[in-house]
Design a protein that fits this description.
- Helix content is about 70%, strand content about 0%.
- It is mainly alpha-helical.
- It has one domain.
């Protein structure tokens, strides 16, 4: 491997580790549902049947998909 390809691998690895760290922080934020800090998440939102926990779950899934899409775009952008 040449120096430039090794540098590219290092850059992509650092980017993947950053994205993984963000994923883990967001993933473990869902544990708020079982702590005192997340007690407000168990109540319903207005007059709907949706709770804060359900909304948080849906938003986390959408954020995870967005982050993976962003990672793929940045990876492809770095190659060209």
């Amino acid at each position: 491997m040449t120096d430039s390809s090794v540098a590219a691998v290092h850059k992509k690895t650092r980017l993947r580790l950053l994205f993984t760290a963000v994923h883990l922080v967001l993933y473990f934020s869902f544990t708020l549902n079982w702590t005192g800090w997340g007690s407000g998440l168990s109540s319903r939102l207005g007059s709907s049947e949706i709770t804060g926990s359900l909304l948080m779950f849906v938003l986390l899934v959408l954020i995870f998909i967005s982050l993976e899409t962003l990672f793929m775009v940045l990876s492809r952008w770095g190659r060209s």
